[in-house]
Structures are given as C-alpha cells and as structure tokens.
Amino acid sequence: MSRTERPPLPERLPVNAVDAHTHLDACGLTTPAQVAEALDRAGSVGVTRAVTVADDLTAARWAAEAATWDERLYAAVAIHPTRTATFGEKEQAEIERLAARPRVVAIGETGLDYYWDYSPPQAQQEAFRWHIDLAKRLGKPLMIHDRDAHDDVLRILDEEGPPETVIFHCFSGDAGVARRCLDAGYVLSFAGPVTFRNARPLREAAKLVPLGQFTVETDAPFLTPHPFRGRPNEPYCVAYTVRDLADLREESVEELAEATTAAAERVFRFRSVTSS
Ligand SMILES: [Zn+2]
Ligand SMILES: [Zn+2]
Description:
Blueprint: E1 17-22, H1 32-44, E2 47-53, H2 57-66, E3 73-77, H3 89-99, E4 104-113, H4 121-138, E5 142-147, H5 150-160, E6 166-168, H6 175-183, E7 187-190, H7 200-208, E8 214-216, H8 238-249, H9 253-268
Parallel strand pairs: 1-2, 2-3, 3-4, 4-5, 5-6, 6-7, 7-8
Bound molecules: zinc ion (2 copies).
One zinc ion binds next to loops.
C-alpha cells in the first residue's frame, strides 16, 4: 500500500452527504471526464454533491466553469488570504463577475491566515473586508478560512457586520472559539483534522456543536481523514469523516449525515440554483 495511492472506497453512507469544501483542480481533476469520475466515486459511497473552492483567479475561472459541467458540483470563488499581497481592482472586478454566476454558491475562501507568511496581515484584512462586502451585496454565503487568526476574523466580521450566512471552513478552533461562532449564528464545517486522534481541543469543540449548525468537508487534496492521513484526499473521503464524527458525538451515521446535508442545503441554497 503506497502513501501516494488513494484510500479505499469506504462503506456507502446510509444517507446522502455533501462535501462542503474541496479543491478538485488541486487534486489534478480538471477535465470534465475527470470531474465526472471523481463525482461518480463520491456518489458510489453516498457523497452526492460537492462544492469546489477557488483560491486564486485561475482557480476561480476554472471552478465557476466546472460547476456548469455537472449537476453534482457547485463552486465558491475568492482570493485566498495567503494570495492577497497584490490583490487589487483587476482581481476584484473578475471575482465579482464570477461570483455572480448562479452555480457559484459562496464567496470563499477568504479570511485570515497568520500561519503562513505569504501576504502581509494588512493586505489580508483589507481583502477580507472586501469579500465580506461582496457576499452582502450578492446575498451569498461567506466561506471563511481562519488559520491562527480566530480573534481577528471574528473582530473584523463584527466590525463590518457579517452577511446573513457565514461558514467557517475546516474549523480549527477549540470549544471556546466554537461557542463564539455559534453565538454569532455562524455555521462550522469539519474537515479531516477533526478525525485526527491528537486534535483533542478540536474534537472537544466538535462535540458541542448542535446538529444542524455544521457541515462536513474534505478540503482535498490535503487533510485526508483518519486512518488515511497523508494519502491523497477526494470528495468520497468525506464519508470517513461522517462516520468518525458520528462515533465521536455518539450519534447515528444516519442522523449525522442527514443533519450535515440539511445544513449544507440551507447554507448553499442548492435547491434554488439552476444549471445555467
Ligand atoms: Zn482554507
Ligand atoms: Zn480550502
């Protein structure tokens, strides 16, 4: 078994699930046929829809287009906080245009990343404020990337006034941060790290979030869930996270899959999105 090999297909989920945040292009799945194959693999284990997320302009163009190829795929577009050093009017105009397309169901990922040193905090914060405003103008949910920046992310959301729907992708805070997000009415999204046995504060946080207030995601190609950490990730792998979370929270897999799917439908308003 090689570490470069995809994990095996998990047992099919009893209820359909949604991968609320993935990067199919970064997985090397860029052609219509490759996208369809990945979604077939996902569908075969009950993961019937996915949101592919852009982190720069090239990825945003691709994601907005790919979401028109397949009914099971939706897109989110933004400039990632680590790529905001040169963020300016030209990028804003194009992100805005792409974000308005009907298959683009969220503005993201945006937020703050104080772990990597690719973009100065000032540039990140200005870009974040711009994306918050865009989400409000378009009436679309805001998908947050927050790495080592919980206080500033929450403060800036507060200062700007958050859009109606805010989702913290790959939530990485502890129970205290989770409570602050829930109090503000934000939705959390759990990725592979919540299944990592050494991620104790995160696992504690995941236990206290009410059903209906969180989604599940892969953030593929990285962060493959336990016990396949380090191997390539893909939307089908979210089924491992669903089962692990159900176990952690002492809920049934059915219950958890159903509630996370309902939360994703509410956040992204899939039903109102046409294929145009
Ligand atoms: Zn992220
Ligand atoms: Zn991501």
